[in-house]
Amino acid sequence: xxxxxxxxxxxxxxxxxxxxxxxxxxxxxxxxxxxxxxxxxxxxxxxxxxxxxxxxxxxxxxxxxxxxxxxxxxxxxxxxxxxxxxxxxxxxxxxxxxxxxxxxxxxxxxxxxxxxxxxxxxxxxxxxxxxxxxxxxxxxxxxxxxxxxxxxxxxxxxxxxxxxxxxxxxxxxxxxxxxxxxxxxxxxxxxxxxxxxxxxxxxxxxxxxxxxxxxxxxxxxxxxxxxx
Amino acid sequence: xxxxxxxxxxxxxxxxxxxxxxxxxxxxxxxxxxxxxxxxxxxxxxxxxxxxxxxxxxxxxxxxxxxxxxxxxxxxxxxxxxxx
Lengths: 228, 84
Known about the structure:
Subcellular location (chain A): Cytoplasm
Pfam families (chain A): GATase_5
Number of strands of chain A: 11
Strand content of chain B: 25-35%
Radius of gyration of chain B: 17 Å
Mean pLDDT of chain B: 94
Largest interface: A-B, 20 and 12 residues
Number of strands of chain B: 3
Number of helices of chain B: 2
CATH topology of chain B: Mth169, Chain: A
CATH architecture of chain A: 3-Layer(aba) Sandwich
Oligomer: heterodimer
Mean pLDDT of chain A: 96
Structural class of chain A: alpha/beta
Structural class of chain B: alpha+beta
Enzyme class (chain B): ligase
CATH superfamily of chain B: Phosphoribosylformylglycinamidine synthase subunit PurS
Order of helices and strands of chain B: EHEHE
CATH class of chain A: Alpha Beta
Helix content of chain B: 25-40%
Organism (chain A): Peribacillus huizhouensis
Helix content of chain A: 10-25%
Pathway (chain A): Purine metabolism; IMP biosynthesis via de novo pathway; 5-amino-1-(5-phospho-D-ribosyl)imidazole from N(2)-formyl-N(1)-(5-phospho-D-ribosyl)glycinamide: step 1/2
Distance between the termini of chain B: 11 Å
Number of helices of chain A: 5
Largest sheet of chain A: 9 strands, mixed
CATH topology of chain A: Rossmann fold
Shape of chain A: globular
């Protein structure tokens, strides 16, 4: 399986993402600049964390209009797995690939620490390797992870099982319903504030994030490789 | 030439963490009559005049980029500047 790591001006989680795929997962991966016209040949798309375009105006607001995003939207609509982490999640929200928006953290501070997450839905291509209700440790590092959507949208998120990860116990940022990650209705686009790519080896404090990438690959192989 | 002033605020229904922090600071300074603080953004746009409908143009820019209408409201004032 071949992954694209999209690099925006101001991305800083791109190298972690690349490392997780190449060295820990053992799959093919390439950096793709924000200026790219095509994502042909890629089986999965990864939007890394960082501060794209300096987070000017709003987080993700300017990145969503960068050249490559038209291709990301196209691929997402074709069912290609798209994972947005942290700033990548914010970009997916601004691009309208996921519903809702981000507000500043409730306490206004940038939070950087390991977070305990509950796997709320393991019937997605991203989480099939986890147990339902399993608690995992994945680090967070953000100033705007306070997820918001209106009541109508929240109803739909619950109805369609789009809430994939929630914070266990203490809600670090004020996010509605403790939401840490959601998918689109089709289930092929996942946005999450915690960084699974920074939890792929016990040396990093946790290897719980690796299962997420392994799930993507396993599901992709089942659908794309004959006699897998 | 147009001078356009755009005001972006968080929607009434959305809790404003910055506004809440500023309000409690004002309260601690004994400005007890302050019942609410909302923090927003103010932008000034200078736009060249052509045949476009300026009102529709500004509205479109607000909807597409300047505001995120999931959490923000916007308003604007358009002033035509006649160069001397």
